[in-house]
Structure formats: structure tokens, C-alpha cells
Amino acid sequence: MKQLDEITYKIIGCAMKVHNTLGNGFQEVIYQRCLAIELQQAELEFVREKEQTIYYNNIEVGSRRADFIVEDNIVIELKAMINLEDIHLAQAKNYTVAYNLPVGLLINFGSLSLQYKKVFNSKYKSLT
Predict the structure, then answer these.
(1) What's the pLDDT tens digit per position in 23-81?
(2) Is the C or the N end of the chain the one with fewer CB within 10 Å?
(3) Domain total for the chain?
(4) Please, what is the angle between helix 28-41 and helix 4-22, to 10°?
């Protein structure tokens, strides 16, 4: 299995290529489609819009879709906003926990320069 740092490096490189090509100002879904093309060309395995059930006290309360799950280890949350805020970082951290993945990436295409934050799941439990 590829190392997590190597994978996140490749993902960020793919995101930079998309941002350098398109710039800012498009809807999030456009960036998502372009990033999917770049991830595929980088030969990274991924799933788009993976649904996850959310529980509260063992009761199903809803669901959420991650923009991408890459190599079964990294959740990616995309934004297309002028600036990232703390709430977006909290959201990305929550997704790493909800999906029980070790690492998450929050990527924002909406600013003049690509913004990204790497988050870690302190509650991660390997299932292997």
C-alpha cells in the first residue's frame, strides 16, 4: 500500500493542476469533476460521493456524502469559497472520524491561490 504522505502529496498536486488550469470562480462540482480526471490520470483509486450513515447514540440520524475517498484511506472535502473558515476545518475533521479514515484533506479552489489543510483522525481505528 502506498504511504499516506505520498498519496496526499499526489492529491494536492492534482488539485494544484486543476486550480492552475481553471483558476477560481467556478462551482464546486466543476472542480470535483476536474479533480476526478486528475486523480484518475495519477492512477489513484477513489470513490466520488460516497455515502456514510451518521449515528447519534446508536440511532441513525441521517447521512452525508464525502466528495472523495482516495485509496480507502483519505477523505477529501472540496470547497469553492473565497476563504476557508474554522467551521470547514471542523467539518473535514468530523468526516475523517465518521468514515473512520486516518487522514482528511480540505481543499478550497475558490481563493486566488489553492488552499488546503490536512487533518488527522485522533480516533482512527485500523480494521485490519
Answers:
(1) 999 999 999 999 999 999 999 999 999 888 888 899 999 988 899 999 999 999 999 99
(2) C
(3) 1
(4) 130
In a domain, 128, yes or no: no
Strands 74-79, 103-108: parallel, antiparallel or unpaired by DSSP? parallel
Nearest in space to 89 (alpha carbons), one of 71, 72, 70, 108: 108
Residue 9: which CATH number?
A: 3.90.320.10
Amino acid identity, position 1: M
pLDDT > 90 in the chain, percent: 69
Residue 113 has which C-alpha cell?
Answer: 491561490
d(CA 68, CA 77): 7
Element (H, E) at 59: strand 59-70
Amino acid identity, residue 16?
A: M
- Which residues constitute the domain of residue 36? 4-120
Please state, in angstroms and as integers, the Cα–Cα distance from residue 67 to each residue in 51, 58, 91, 93, 128, following that order.
9, 25, 12, 14, 25
Q: Does residue 126 sit within a domain? A: no
